[in-house]
Amino acid sequence: MSEEKQEMIDRVYGELENVEDPELGVDIVNLGLIYGVDIDDSKNVKVEMTLTSMGCPLAGTIVNDIQNALSDLKEFGEINEVDVNIVWDPPWDKSKMSRYAKIALGVHEGPEDRA
After folding, report:
1. Engineering a disulfide at 101: which of 59, 85, 91, 97 sits with its beta carbon 3.0 to 4.6 angstroms away?
2. Where do the MIP18 family-like domain residues begin and end (predicted)?
């Protein structure tokens, strides 16, 4: 992967850190909901993510928030289309959260959670 492409992926992740899960109040990156970001040669962005539960009623809200968070990058021509793909495999669990998210939510790690 080119350095330029990796830098843009990093910028997309940075913008996604501004998108909070409305129920939990922690951003979707630190929650571990983002499984991957890819940018093709036409500068189209594909975000692969999951939600904390299959029946999450806020899926549409989160997808809209992602589109809004990336709108500045689109406006300045740094990226083009944004496609958000919600997947359920692998299923999300608390082990995917960053240390920051665990502290923010008061999730205590047991010995089985530590790597």
Report:
1. 97
2. 10-78
Q: What does CATH list as the number for 3-113?
A: 3.30.300.130
CA angle 106, 36, 21 (to 5 degrees): 35
Query: Tokens 């289309």 identify what position?
Result: 81
Show me where the domains of the chain are located: 3-113
Asked if 35 and 87 count as a contact pair (C-beta separation under 8 A), the reply is yes
Cα separations (Å) of 80 from 9, 39, 58? 13, 9, 25
Residue listed under structure tokens 């089985």: 112
Dihedral sign for Cα 37, 54, 59, 17, please: negative
Sign of CA dihedral 63, 66, 68, 70: negative
The residue whose two tokens read 């009623």 is 57
